[in-house]
Amino acid sequence: MTTSAVGKFDGGARPPDKGPAAIGYTVEMGGSTEEKGHDRIGRATCNEAEYHALIQGLEAASKKGCTEVEARGDSQLIVRQVTGEWQTKEPRLRELRDRVREVADEFEQFEIRHTPREENREADTLVEQAFAD
């Protein structure tokens, strides 16, 4: 049986980068949010936080039994590094990108695409909630 999901992810770090970091993600199935999460992840760059949010969201989709996942994020860098359009020169980001690919390989079908920030508000709100907690 095919179980499809749309995962949205976002991450952030303060101030302005390489500081306290947080993530947010959602997993939508059948048009409704089935799973969402947010957390502080210690010190990280914004890009590292984005990767961690994507990984957490993919792992949540896997636990839900999803077989097809479309991941959406507002970071062009993350999307294009995962797809291979852009190189990943930073060693730490390369490790995180490789982890994303490992988790993505568990699905029968995986796609990642860039989404405008205004269409990623729920994940962004979860990041802010993590900072507030």
Structure in words:
The chain has a single domain, classed as Nucleotidyltransferase, domain 5 (2-Layer Sandwich). 39% of the residues lie in helices and 35% in strands. The protein contains four helices and five strands. The protein is globular and about 45 Å long. The model has no long low-confidence stretch (mean pLDDT 96).
> What is the CATH superfamily?
Ribonuclease H-like superfamily/Ribonuclease H
**Count of beta strands:** 5
The CATH level-2 architecture is identified as 2-Layer Sandwich
Give me the strand/helix succession. EEEHEHHEH
Low-confidence stretches: none
Task: Give the biggest sheet.
Answer: 5 strands, mixed
Radius of gyration, whole Å: 14 Å
End-to-end CA span: 38 Å
Q: What count of structural domains?
A: 1
Let me know the average pLDDT: 96
Choose one word for the global shape: globular
Q: How many helical stretches?
A: 4
Q: CATH first level: which class? A: Alpha Beta
What name is given to the CATH topology?
Nucleotidyltransferase, domain 5
Question: What share of residues are in beta strands?
Answer: 25-35%
Could you say which structural class the secondary elements and strand pairing correspond to? alpha/beta
Classify the helix fraction into a percent range.
Answer: 25-40%
What is this structure, in a nutshell?
With 133 residues, this protein is α/β, with parallel strands linked by helices. 39% of the residues lie in helices and 35% in strands.
